[in-house]
Specification:
CATH architecture of chain A: Orthogonal Bundle
Number of strands of chain A: 2
Oligomer: homodimer
Order of helices and strands of chain A: HHHHEEHHHHHHHHHHH
Shape of chain A: globular
Strand order of the largest sheet of chain A: 1-2
Largest interface: A-B, 56 and 56 residues
Strand content of chain A: under 5%
Number of helices of chain A: 15
Chain lengths: 304, 304
């Protein structure tokens, strides 16, 4: 990575991260209906599910990719809201009793525990709609046809051939032993598809010279897999208190993980390799890609 | 309504309806991933939920409004798929044990009965994504910015201030006594919002001279409410076998309905009044609006 050459002092990664998180929180605050807006209980539960929690990894990827493509910040805010809403909806539904039956998320009771199951179902449903609403509320690309294509990208990443499909693969996998390629296939869908969309849609808010998008796509695939490998490592080694969600649950449910297939050390090595691959993918990008580089570090190096 | 003046023989309403239904079925068939496409069980369940059932009222409204606005049939097919997918997802989620806990839908076991609850949850989630995917897969308006606005219309109609919000209002209403305006407010959201979007999006695939869209909007509101009033009447008077879903359930659950508030006769009168209002709204449209006129009749006069 080239160092930034400009005269203005460059923010540290921690400063940049805090800035993006605050920006995204404000954008989400503003995009979601007030809890005084009827139906109040639903809007209260939606805000409970989305606001004031989470690392906002996907929005950070959107901003980092957008900055590499010189995209305007308002556009990135809208895309960041959309991908975070899709992510938040998936967590609410994933926590339901018929799925993972989890009671703790981001250090708080899950939505169906704090409210009720029917409300949690509707929170997820409404959040998915809200994602497409915020993604189409203002122009996000110089060319409106490209904007339509961006919506298609998010829909495909969220659906049965993307994230929801990954959840279905995950359901089928409980109690079965998976091979490493099968596990990878599950995660490419379950978390990888939305992470990839977060990166690509950020870049589409601006412009990259070829072969920028192809390289970003490769970066996103590496980071997406790394994210999951690290999640498995953290789940295996961390306490519930540190993690903010019920730990050790995958092993207890006999769900296959990178740690159960590879062991802790080789899983860590894999994450490290994916971090190097992510960096490699954006070699040749200019200094505006510095946050992409740092985010790969952040995703792999958090907490261990 | 002016009669069609052209030389070609005009199809009867029944012929037109059969043609639209067949066309929509083919478009849905084609839009949804094959059940051989992994994850197979999810795709099988999605196709089970959507194909081969239902009256396709929303797609018919899309086509009827589109014909009134001279819209190309391929565009209308895509919009019809999108609104029907949103409708189908809402039925699957509405039937879940934590919601209405229903076992029969369109004469078949509900998705969570035929498959399982987790799969039904994912079917609904994936169908919502699929709706936005099909809505953005090809150009639907001469102006791409107008296309983006169409996506926004569907998202808003589906979300917490539209259909999902109506479901939440419905949840809150169980066991309470509602006033007529409260009941109307619930249905304006729960079924009205998507019906309105079905009509408006159909027209947006073509062009209407002013004040065409405003009048169509009024038509859609009348038809949407009429649809629900008639549903309540049918639910109160029909047997489960004729209806293809569990009948008399609203009364058994102590849910407020137009029949419980108004009685059967006054509920029928209201439906009749709304049919006249719908016709009135499109007075002055030319003969291409004939299907809109006939659809208002069909919606109110079906089965009684």
């Amino acid at each position: 990575m080239a160092e930034a050459m400009g005269a203005a002092p460059v923010a540290t990664f921690a400063e940049w991260m805090g800035d993006v998180q605050a920006r995204v929180e404000r954008a989400l605050e503003h995009s979601l209906p007030a809890s005084s807006h009827p139906p109040q209980r639903l809007h209260l539960a939606i805000r409970y599910a989305v606001l004031g929690g989470g690392k906002r990894v996907r929005p950070m990827l959107t901003f980092a990719a957008g900055e590499a493509a010189d995209a305007p910040a308002e556009r990135l805010g809208a895309v960041a809201c959309a991908v975070e809403m899709i992510h938040a909806y998936s967590l609410v539904h994933d926590d339901l009793p018929c799925m993972d039956d989890d009671v703790l998320r981001r250090g708080k009771p899950t939505v169906h525990v704090e409210f009720d199951e029917a409300t949690a179902l509707l929170v997820g449903d409404a959040l998915q709609s809200a994602a497409f609403e915020v993604l189409t509320a203002r122009p996000l690309a110089d060319d409106a046809a490209a904007h339509v294509a961006m919506v298609n990208t998010l829909a495909t990443a969220s659906g049965s051939r993307g994230m929801a499909g990954g959840q279905a693969i995950d359901l089928d996998a409980v109690g079965r032993s998976l091979t490493l390629p099968e596990l990878e296939n599950m995660h490419i869908h379950k978390t990888g598809a939305l992470i990839r969309a977060s990166v690509l849609l950020g870049a589409r808010c601006g412009h990259l010279p070829p072969p920028g998008y192809e390289r970003l796509d490769r970066y996103a695939k590496c980071v997406g897999l790394a994210f999951q490998v690290v999640d498995d490592v953290l789940d295996a080694q961390e306490s519930t208190a540190t993690l903010g969600k019920t730990a050790g649950k995958d092993a207890a449910q006999n769900k296959p993980t990178y740690v159960s297939l590879l062991g802790l050390d080789r899983a860590r090595d894999l994450a490290e390799q994916l971090r190097r691959d992510a960096h490699e993918a954006i070699v040749g990008f200019d200094e505006r890609a510095r946050r992409l580089h740092e985010l790969a570090d952040f995703i792999v190096l958090r907490k261990f």
